[in-house]
Write a structure and sequence with these properties.
77 residues; mainly beta; six-stranded antiparallel beta sheet; two-stranded antiparallel sheet
């Protein structure tokens, strides 16, 4: 995980986001740059809803040491 610029998040990214007071990993299924929010889904294809940029904290940069593609330029590090 790495800190993320929420404005750079795209469909298909995996983000760390707060939902109902708890922080979870979610798949981004849509983005709304005008309203500064992303639609988050789970790994079973269910859409959980929209969350604002201020609730998106991080982006998954690798899994088991294998880098995820499409992350470059999105992190704050």
């Amino acid at each position: 995980m790495a800190p993320v610029d929420p404005a750079e998040v795209e469909v298909g990214d995996i983000v760390l986001a707060r939902v109902a007071g708890t922080v979870y990993l979610h798949l981004v299924s849509a983005v709304d740059p005008v309203k500064k929010r992303v639609q988050i889904s789970n790994n079973r294809g269910r859409i959980n809803g929209w969350t604002s940029h201020d609730r998106v904290f991080g982006i998954c940069v690798s899994v088991d040491g294998v880098a995820r593609s499409g992350v470059k330029g999105k992190t704050l590090e």
